Amino acid sequence: MNFEQIEALKQLLSTSKRIAIVPHKNPDGDAIGSTLALCHYLTKKGHHAHVIAPNDFPKFLKWMPGANRVFNFERHNTETKKIIAEAELIFTLDFNDFGRVGQMAESLENASAKYIMVDHHQQPSDYADITYSDVLMSSTCEMVYNLIGYMGDLDVIDEDIANCIYTGIMTDTGSFKFKATTSQTHRVVADLMDKGANNTEIHERIYDTNSPSRLHLLGCALKNMVILEEFNTAYISLTQEELDHYSYEKGDTEGFVNYGLTLDKIRFAVIFIENKEEGIFKISFRSVGNFSVNEFARNHFHGGGHTNAAGGRSESNLEETINHFVSLLPQYKKALTE
Hints:
- The structure is a single chain.
- The chain is of the alpha/beta class.
- Helices cover 38% and strands 18% of the residues.
- The protein folds into 2 domains: 3-207, inorganic pyrophosphatase (n-terminal core) (Alpha-Beta Complex); 212-337, Roll (Diaminopimelate Epimerase, Chain A, domain 1), CATH 3.10.310.
- The protein is built from 13 helices and 12 strands.
- The chain has a 6-stranded parallel β-sheet with strand order 3-2-1-4-5-6, with helices on both faces.
- α2 (29-44) links the parallel β1 and β2 (48-53).
- It is an enzyme of class 3 (hydrolase).
- Pfam families: DHH, DHHA1.
- Residues 18-169 form the DDH domain.
C-alpha cells in the first residue's frame, strides 16, 4: 500500500463503522484465516464487523477463533443481504473479482459501501475504492498482518488474531515450502508465535484430523492418476460417483493435486473434480518453476490465480475435458520440458 492509501484507510476507520468482510467461494485456510483475523482486529477497534462467506467451508477450519460466527450466504440469505446492504465498508479478501463469489456477486455489485480489496492474485479488477494488491505476497493473511501494521496496531494482535493469520500463511505456503515464502514471511510468523500462535496445534488441526473416508478417497484419486512423461505432466480425475462413494465432504480433496508434483521430473499437476450440482468439472492446476498455470487457466479454462497455483472449470464431460486438456500440451511442451 502506498502512503495515500494507508492514510485514506486510516480515515475510513477513524470512526466506528458497519463492516462486512467477504472471502471467495469455497474458502480455504487463507480466505477464512484472513477474514477472521481482520474481523477480530476491527471488532477490537470498535467497529461492527461480520464475516460473510459465499458458501460453507471445510470442517478442518471450523476450530478457528470466530469460525462459529461466520455467516453463510447460501444458508442465511436474507440476513446476509441485509448486512451487505447496510454496510458502510466492505473488505474483500483473497479474491479480486466478483466472479469469485458465485451468487453473492449481485448483492456486492448493488452495495453502496466503500470497497477495500486485499489480495495477492494476479490481474485484479478495479471495483475497490482502496486496493492492496501484491502478487509477490505469500498469502492474504500475511497482507492482513501488514495492513494491521500500516494502521500502527501490531500490538493489538492477540492470540486469536495470531492463530488465524498463522493458519492462512501456513496453508497457502504449503507449510512454508512455496517460492512466495520469503524471509519476511518467516519474520511475520515468528512474531505471530510470540503473540500466541500455536504452530504445532494449528498444523495438527489442519493436517492430522483426516477421516477414514478421506484417506480412501485419496487412494482412489492416486489410483486414477495419469502420468504424461512426454510433457512432465500428471493429472488426477474424480467423478461425482467416486466422491459420493467415499462420502465426500467439503475440503476432502484439498491438497490432492499436489501429489502429482511429488513425482520425479513432473512440473505440471492437475486435478479434475466433478460437481454435478453445478454442472461443471472444477480444475486445480499446480506447477514448479516458471511455467505459469495462471496463464494456462485464464487462456483455456475460465480461471486464473498465481504463477504456480491456479484454478479453472469446464462445462464439458470428463472425457471431453481431459481430451481438450491433453490436446493443449504440445504447444507448451518446450516450457514444460526445458
